[in-house]
Q: What sequence folds into this?
């Protein structure tokens, strides 16, 4: 075997024999996919639950709106007490021609929604029972919007995060431990150059990253989670690989100035955890304040995540490769320059 | 094979190696002896090409090792103080990986394991090896590309006596293969036992450089004879022909002499010999004489 492939295979063996490394690279992100996937599997906004007493055309019409979930009560007092206790936002009682609505004052939004729905339904029933022709008509039709189901952003997000984490720790720990144990010096005293040493480790990290991504996507597409890949999913591969290179370079910077594994681990976490939140890998940033949106534009993880999502679940075309690729490459160059300034072979 | 001329290295205001002149021929078992901070390791690192000298010249195979000289790297094998291994790899995998760095066939890996007596540990991971086994494996890793010169930095430090003796055998068999060995040690008796020539260093200076026998002989120190207290009176001891001094201390009567033969013959006639010990000069005496203080290990 050549020095390059032999060093790569040494790195891969070292990784897969290290239970802690394997846990954090595979089981840890997978845990989040499973938890988030199950929590959010019941997609969409929850219906408002209200109490109803009695029956008749109004109650039937309320049920058919699909916006409310009705709980039947035998008498009004019991249901009213629930509203007073704060267990229900509202109760509707139909007795003969009188429809009584009592709502809790605490939740104004729910109250307004319920009032609007009940009033609309009552008007509709009134109109029908009067036999008159309506002057105005509403033409309503359902539209399929582009908002993603939660699993569609959970999997790419966790994929970006898990792979980035693996790449940062992979290179930072290797550098620190090799320097400490004098493996770096030993390698320097062999007739090979630094590009073979680092390149072989990078290739190993890329292989691990691709396996990670395959596992996360595989689990996501299980029926219980229901991830649906778009037609251009495979175009996310270049972004995945460029992302690995970028975060490998981040690890090189960290590994270059940290003298112990503990320090490297602390710094790596201090970089990756805030970046993960600011890059929207745990939850989408659509509702985030604008300053956070701006900051996130400077996060390579954001571009890796968005770049992969574009192909994995949004089905964008090849033109969507350009911007995230350029940003990740630029970031990598920056990190490599910094690492080359900070790098040292020896601890002393 | 290795030649240095006024080799000097400074760390700030501290002179780690001070105008060192060495000439190590092919096939020699050469030893640097000295306390921590004597400059042994720094000297080795400069010769290996891992450190830039501040002054003087080094020639190894007739070439300068600095700046990094890949041609030289192929011909030297280096074992560092720490056991520099790849994480979680087995003994044989370590050797094969190191072999690949030198672009040599990994077939020599098994042979090297056998040489250092680790054939049975071929499938054992580095973190499951004992201290002595790690040292032997790291020596095997330094030899796997069949270098002409092997540099070993304190290979026996931290080993129990048995593991040390074990390693001595390994070093002997490496020498039998015609390798030039340059190594450092704290242990005086080890240097005396193994080496062709010893360089005694302190504070970056070369204090002495010769064969262990010549160094001991050159000291011309008296032989000491120790007797149990009460076997012989101090006065009587002083009267024996050839005795230089006799003193009674710590329950032992210590006699010094430069003609141990006649003195011992005289003692044999008068006292029981099983109460008697003879201490000849050792490298330790040379060292103490040269540095003028207690040897620190």
A:
């Amino acid at each position: 075997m050549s020095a390059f492939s032999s060093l790569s295979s040494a790195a891969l063996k070292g990784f897969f024999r290290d239970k802690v490394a394997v846990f954090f690279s595979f089981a840890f992100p997978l845990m989040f996919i499973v938890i988030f996937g199950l929590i959010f599997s019941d997609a969409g906004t929850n219906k408002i639950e209200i109490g109803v007493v009695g029956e008749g055309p109004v109650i039937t019409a309320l049920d058919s709106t699909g916006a409310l979930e009705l709980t039947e009560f035998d008498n009004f007092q019991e249901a009213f007490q629930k509203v007073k206790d704060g267990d229900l936002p509202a109760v509707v009682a139909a007795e003969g021609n009188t429809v009584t609505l009592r709502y809790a004052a605490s939740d104004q939004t729910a109250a307004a929604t319920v009032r609007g729905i009940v009033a609309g339904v009552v008007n509709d029933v009134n109109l029908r029972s009067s036999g008159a022709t309506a002057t105005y008509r509403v033409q309503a039709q359902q539209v399929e919007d582009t908002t993603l189901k939660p699993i569609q952003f959970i999997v790419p997000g966790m994929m970006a995060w898990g792979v980035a984490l693996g790449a940062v720790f992979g290179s930072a720990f290797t550098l620190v431990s090799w320097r400490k144990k004098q493996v770096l010096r030993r390698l320097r005293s062999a007739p090979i150059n630094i590009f073979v040493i680092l390149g072989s480790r990078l290739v190993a990290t890329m292989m691990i990253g691709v396996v990670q991504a395959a596992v996360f996507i595989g689990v996501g597409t299980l029926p219980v989670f229901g991830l649906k890949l778009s037609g251009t999913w495979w175009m996310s591969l270049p972004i995945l690989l460029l992302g690995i290179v970028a975060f490998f370079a981040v690890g090189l910077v960290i590994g270059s100035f940290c003298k112990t594994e503990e320090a490297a681990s602390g710094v790596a976490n201090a970089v990756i955890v805030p970046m993960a939140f600011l890059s929207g890998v745990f939850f989408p940033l659509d509702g985030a304040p604008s300053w956070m949106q701006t900051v996130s534009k400077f996060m390579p993880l954001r571009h890796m995540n968005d770049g992969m999502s574009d192909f994995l679940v949004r089905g964008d075309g090849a033109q969507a490769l350009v911007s995230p690729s350029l940003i990740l490459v630029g970031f990598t160059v920056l990190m490599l320059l910094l690492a080359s300034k900070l790098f040292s072979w020896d601890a002393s | 094979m290795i030649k240095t001329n006024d080799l000097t290295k400074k760390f700030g205001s501290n002179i780690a190696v001070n105008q060192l002149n060495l000439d190590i021929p092919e096939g020699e078992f050469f030893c640097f002896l000295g306390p921590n901070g004597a400059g042994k390791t720094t000297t080795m690192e400069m010769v290996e090409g891992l450190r830039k000298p501040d002054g003087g010249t080094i020639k190894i195979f007739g070439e300068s090792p600095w700046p990094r000289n890949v041609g030289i790297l192929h011909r030297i094998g280096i074992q560092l103080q720490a056991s520099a291994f790849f994480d979680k790899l087995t003994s044989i995998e370590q050797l094969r990986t190191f072999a690949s760095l030198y672009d040599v066939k990994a077939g020599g890996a098994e042979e090297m394991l056998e040489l250092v007596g680790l054939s049975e540990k071929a499938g054992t991971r580095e973190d499951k090896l004992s201290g002595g086994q790690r040292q032997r494996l790291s020596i095997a890793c330094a030899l796997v590309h069949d270098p002409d010169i092997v540099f070993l930095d304190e290979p026996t430090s931290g080993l129990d006596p048995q593991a040390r003796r074990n390693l001595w055998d390994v070093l002997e068999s490496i020498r039998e293969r015609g390798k030039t060995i340059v190594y450092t040690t704290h242990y005086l008796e080890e240097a005396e036992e193994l080496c062709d020539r010893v360089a005694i260093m302190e504070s970056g200076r070369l204090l002495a450089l010769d064969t262990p026998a010549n160094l001991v002989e050159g000291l011309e120190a008296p032989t000491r004879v120790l007797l149990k207290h009460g076997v012989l009176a101090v006065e009587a001891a002083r009267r024996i022909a050839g005795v230089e001094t006799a003193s009674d201390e710590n329950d032992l009567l210590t006699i010094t002499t430069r003609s141990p033969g006649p003195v011992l013959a005289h003692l044999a006639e008068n006292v029981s010999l099983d109460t008697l010990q003879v201490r000849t000069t050792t490298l330790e005496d040379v060292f103490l004489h040269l540095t003028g203080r207690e040897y620190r290990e």
About this structure: Chain B touches chain A at residues 48-50, 68, 70, 73-74, 76, 78, 80-89, 93, 96-98, 100-103, 106, 125, 141 (CB under 8 Å).
